[in-house]
Q: What sequence folds into this?
């Protein structure tokens, strides 16, 4: 074997590899293209991603990739069509028990849903969220699945998403009813608190540990909820959704009310106790602590962009303005 | 095949390690590169083997600039055995030797049977074939060194560079390998450039040598011309005796310990010796600070050569000739200038019998005579009893007989002290002595008197 | 046959023995890959898998009517599992080969493909792109992948130039610069994670390593780099053997040391950057697979490189299969599996060899 001979072989391998790579791309892209049927069928839907999905027929097998989406689907009466939920879905039913009993499938952690599981269920429609699911959504769409991304940034957005799901699933009437119900309840609260003399300063705590304090900014849902419930988020001037801040920042802003979520999707050991909060160094001067205005809020409800957001709104309004209710 | 080094200057950073080095070697040359630590020997080899590019100067291999050639081309002709190399990979010894065939193989060519045969031959010549399949990192330093030498030989080079190749090797391996290399030099015209620390080894195998001092060539040429005691003293700062050994027909170098600096004594000692009996004593006495003379010695006598080397004044007689009256008188005159005479265990024949007489006369004159009686007089008397008789006379006349050199030296030290003190306190202490009685220790220190 | 003849015959038959080993390993790789197609959440009968595969081969196509195969199963096998397995093969091969090359350049058993800051550079590239440009694609390839690749190469380039002295690159300087740059870049990644807000999850997942969502076009992007890199590396196997004896000795035996080292650095960095861009940081393979192979097969790079490469591929394919199944439907990051399984096995091999360890 001399060098020249081997160089020929090496060049041949290089050429073969490039050619095969191109072949693979072209061929399989072609296959995928056929999977994504371009049928302009029943309707076209534009979701929160700005992506246009066209459905040829109303879906019969729906996969939900987020707890909020599961709640919406069940609220619209689509429970019998739902074939998959996530590990975190817990309302309106105890889905983990269903999965354990073999009556429902879970796609796993909603941060990284298992593509193969989804594929094996052969869903007609997948309802996902944004953020961390972006890669998964892209892959699913490339594989030819119909994916609706629900990623609302405001309460109004939630209402629009509910309407969107209704359109996609031939549940327009149910969706309209739900939206109307929610709207009127929201309006009722807003009108009532408009009469309030003052708006309490509210601190909503996402997380507290030795590293720091996390709260919510103006882009976060919770800020809008607080405002509509007649309060003011002390961090309303921070734009980010979730951000890290410090004890000092909270203390200087001196909130009148503190909302401490329990849950975080975690069990009781992680719930923050009021005694613990009162004992935090330097926090004793805070108005909310002195007046004992610490409230525990269900984190499942407050952060989930589903129908129960209205329940949360009403709860908050009662907390901020007990005199009006 | 011609290797030409011209005006090479090498630097490490800004420090000049080699300067103005030029040499020329051709087929069959075995050149030793010698010099003290830091003189640039290894650097010279590095510049030739293309490890360290010279700042100035050229190195030509058959008229081609060695640095313009490809590594492979050079490797086909030149092999290098470095000073030390530990290999952390578990290649077998044969693998390592086979790597020496690399310059002759194309990139993807596997080693052929011929290559394995060449490797095998190289390993048999270096006594390494019997562990050919053992991993190299399990071998001892000496075994590994031999494997590397085998690898260099497997390269079938025309030039072989060796950097202190003899470290780690035991005597028999040193000799066998050097003999092998020498043979290749002679039979196949292999050029060898070798750095040696051991001057004797270099002297034995090298035809020519270059001696480096502080990065420059101090001396270059035939080995006998380069390795002289002057050069050695100049470059290595060591006194050494350089002699030609008749059996190996090569020079051998005997380094001498640097002299101890003791205060010089005023005493001068004359040695009556010969046949090598006085050689060691000469050096020892000189080191102790005595000034030494000797006689009568025949030219070509071993003690004569030593005296020459040590620059000791000698009364000499022609080689193989008996001592003449004239010489005898000259000897006596030399003796008269000395404070002490020492007679060694030299054999006596009719030729040097006069020396014994000289000893007797000296004694009669009152100069102390020390006789080293290591070997019984009977076994070294070749004058049918005359020497023995004179010997006994010396004894009766008061010569001090000592068993060996050490006793002599200790006695000499005491006498020195005595002489010193004696000069100071003669009148005081010697009054109570009877004639012929030597003063005792206590007399000198005066302890018993004064206490 | 006496010992001498034994030794000689071993050496002359070496080439054919080596070819046999490589062919056997390739067969094992092929079988492992096909079997790995059987692993996954969806329980697809093996015979269906074979049918699906057969339908892809032009000649066998006609033997299997399309009615026998469900399109769901076909989609899962061809679109989800196959790209994943092929990625495992490519990345495992790439990391193992790069590991062999790095250990040959550095003659240091602790050198792996990440030691020169490749992983840190790729992480910075990926994190930056995740923070600022997610969703952006170029020729179908995600921006994170491209950014990781570019980041890795830029880092190598930086480290190389920091340590260069004229045309020589002293090994110890290279290693130290690599470590310094790695630490610095890792700190930058930490900062990026802190300011990431809700994109933190995405960055963390990328860093953990894994190829759960690979598609064919991702594979297409890295296949040429890895294949060409690995094949080109084979050109230098003899030089690697000689380099093991020491830089000076290698040069005396005819190796152009500076040129070879440069080439090896470029090739191994290219391979590693390509692998990291598609799979994130998967540790252990580049470091341990070459060692493990060396313990069994010896230090001669002419056989070590091909076998390490193939064994690396087999190993990663198996680890990925385990990662898919062990806590289904969730997945363990494949880097965790490689470390958990490989570490103890390597220790076992070391103990078996008893007499201490040398490269």
A:
């Amino acid at each position: 074997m001399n060098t020249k001979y081997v160089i020929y072989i090496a060049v041949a391998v290089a050429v073969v590899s490039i050619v095969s790579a191109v072949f693979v791309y072209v061929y399989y892209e072609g296959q995928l293209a056929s999977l994504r049927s371009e049928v302009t069928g029943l309707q076209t839907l534009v979701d929160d991603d700005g992506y246009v999905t066209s459905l040829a027929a109303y879906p019969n097998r729906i996969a939900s990739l987020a707890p909020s989406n599961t709640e919406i689907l069940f609220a619209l009466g689509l429970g019998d069509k739902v074939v998959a939920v996530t590990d975190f879905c817990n309302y309106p039913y105890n889905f983990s028990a269903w999965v354990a009993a073999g009556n429902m499938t879970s796609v796993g952690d909603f941060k990284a849903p298992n593509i193969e599981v989804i594929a094996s269920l052969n869903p007609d429609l997948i309802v996902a969220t944004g953020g961390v699911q972006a890669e998964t959504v892209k892959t699913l769409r490339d594989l030819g699945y119909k994916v609706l991304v629900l990623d609302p940034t405001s309460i109004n957005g939630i209402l629009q998403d509910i309407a969107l799901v209704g359109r996609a699933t031939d549940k327009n009437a149910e969706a309209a009813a739900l939206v109307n119900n929610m709207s009127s309840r929201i309006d009722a609260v807003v009108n009532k608190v408009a009469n309030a003399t003052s708006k309490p300063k509210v601190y909503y705590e996402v997380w507290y540990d030795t590293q720091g304090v996390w709260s919510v900014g103006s882009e976060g849902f919770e800020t809008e909820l607080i405002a509509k419930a007649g309060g003011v988020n002390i961090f309303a001037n921070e734009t980010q959704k979730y951000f890290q801040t410090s004890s000092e920042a909270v203390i200087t802003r001196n909130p009148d009310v503190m909302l401490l979520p329990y849950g975080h999707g975690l069990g009781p050991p992680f719930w923050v106790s009021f005694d613990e909060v009162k004992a935090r160094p330097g926090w004793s001067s805070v108005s909310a602590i002195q007046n004992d205005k610490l409230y525990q809020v269900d984190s499942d409800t407050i952060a989930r962009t589903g129908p129960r957001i209205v329940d949360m709104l009403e709860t908050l309004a009662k907390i901020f303005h007990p005199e009006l209710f | 095949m011609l290797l030409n080094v011209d005006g090479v200057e090498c630097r490490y950073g800004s420090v000049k390690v080699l300067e103005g080095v030029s040499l020329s070697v051709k087929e069959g040359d075995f050149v030793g590169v010698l010099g003290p630590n830091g003189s640039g020997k290894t650097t010279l080899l590095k510049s030739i083997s293309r490890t360290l590019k010279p700042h100035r100067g050229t190195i030509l291999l058959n008229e081609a600039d060695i640095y313009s050639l490809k590594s492979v081309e050079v490797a086909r002709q030149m092999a290098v055995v470095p000073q030390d190399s530990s290999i952390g990979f578990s290649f077998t010894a044969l693998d390592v030797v086979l790597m020496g065939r690399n310059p002759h193989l194309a990139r993807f060519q596997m080693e052929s049977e011929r290559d394995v045969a060449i490797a095998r031959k190289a390993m048999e010549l270096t006594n390494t074939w019997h562990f050919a399949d053992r991993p190299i990192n399990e071998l001892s330093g000496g075994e590994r060194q031999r494997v590397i030498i085998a690898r260099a030989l497997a390269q079938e080079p025309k030039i072989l560079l060796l950097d202190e190749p003899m470290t780690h090797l035991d005597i028999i391996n040193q000799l066998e390998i050097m003999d092998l290399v020498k043979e290749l030099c002679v039979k196949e015209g292999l050029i060898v450039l070798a750095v040696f620390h051991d001057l004797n080894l270099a002297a034995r195998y090298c035809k020519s040598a270059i001696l480096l001092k502080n990065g420059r060539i101090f001396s270059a040429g035939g080995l006998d011309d380069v390795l002289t005691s002057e050069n050695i003293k100049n470059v290595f700062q060591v006194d050494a005796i350089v002699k030609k050994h008749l059996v190996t027909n090569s020079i051998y170098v005997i380094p001498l310990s640097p002299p101890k600096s003791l205060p010089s004594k005023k005493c001068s000692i004359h040695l009556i010796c010969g046949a090598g009996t006085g050689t060691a004593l000469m050096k020892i006495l000189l080191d102790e600070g005595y000034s030494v003379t000797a006689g009568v010695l025949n030219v070509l006598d071993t003690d004569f050569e030593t005296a020459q080397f040590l620059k000791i004044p000698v009364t000499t007689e022609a080689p193989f000739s008996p001592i003449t009256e004239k010489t005898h008188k000259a000897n006596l005159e030399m003796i008269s200038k000395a404070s002490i005479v020492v007679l060694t265990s030299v054999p006596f024949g009719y030729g040097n019998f006069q020396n014994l007489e000289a000893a007797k006369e000296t004694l009669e004159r009152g100069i102390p005579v020390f006789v080293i009686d290591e070997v019984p007089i009977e076994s070294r008397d070749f004058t049918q009893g005359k020497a023995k008789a004179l010997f006994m006379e010396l004894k009766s006349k008061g010569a001090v007989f000592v068993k060996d050199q050490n006793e002599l030296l200790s006695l000499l030290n005491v006498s020195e002290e005595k002489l010193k003190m004696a000069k100071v306190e003669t009148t005081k202490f010697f009054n109570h002595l009877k004639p012929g009685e030597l003063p005792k220790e206590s007399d000198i220190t005066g302890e018993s008197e004064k206490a | 046959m006496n010992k001498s003849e034994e030794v000689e015959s071993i050496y002359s038959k070496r080439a054919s023995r080596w070819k046999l080993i490589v062919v056997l390993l390739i067969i094992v790789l092929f079988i492992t890959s096909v079997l790995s197609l059987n692993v996954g959440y969806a329980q697809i009968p093996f015979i269906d898998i074979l049918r699906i595969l057969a339908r892809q081969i032009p000649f066998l196509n006609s033997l299997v009517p399309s009615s026998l195969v469900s399109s769901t199963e076909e989609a899962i096998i061809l679109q989800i599992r196959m790209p994943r397995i092929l990625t495992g093969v490519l990345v495992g091969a790439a990391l193992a080969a790069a590991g062999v090359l790095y250990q040959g350049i550095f003659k240091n058993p602790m050198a792996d493909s990440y030691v020169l800051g490749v992983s840190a550079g790729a992480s910075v590239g990926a994190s930056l792109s995740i923070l600022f440009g997610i969703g952006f694609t170029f020729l179908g390839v995600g921006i994170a992948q491209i950014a990781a690749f570019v980041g890795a190469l830029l880092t190598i380039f930086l480290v190389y130039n920091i340590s260069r002295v004229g045309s020589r690159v002293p090994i110890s300087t290279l290693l130290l610069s690599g470590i310094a740059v790695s630490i610095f870049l890792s700190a930058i990644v930490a900062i990026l994670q802190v300011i990431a807000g809700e994109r933190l999850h995405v960055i963390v997942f990328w860093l953990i390593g894994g190829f759960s969502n690979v598609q064919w076009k991702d594979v297409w992007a890295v296949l040429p780099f890895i294949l060409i890199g690995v094949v080109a590396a084979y050109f230098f196997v003899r030089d690697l053997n000689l380099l093991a004896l020491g830089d000076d000795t290698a040069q005396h035996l005819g190796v152009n040391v500076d040129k070879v080292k440069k080439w090896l650095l470029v090739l191994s960095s290219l391979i590693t950057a390509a692998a990291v861009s598609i799979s994130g940081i998967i540790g252990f393979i580049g470091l341990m697979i070459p060692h493990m192979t060396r313990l069994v097969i010896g230090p001669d790079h002419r056989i070590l490189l091909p076998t390490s490469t193939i064994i690396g591929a087999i190993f990663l394919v198996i680890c990925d299969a385990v990662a898919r199944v062990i806590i289904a439907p969730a997945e363990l990051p494949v880097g965790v599996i490689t470390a958990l399984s490989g570490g103890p096995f390597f220790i076992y091999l070391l103990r078996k060899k008893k007499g201490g360890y040398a490269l």
Summary: The beta strands of chain C are 137-138, 141-142.
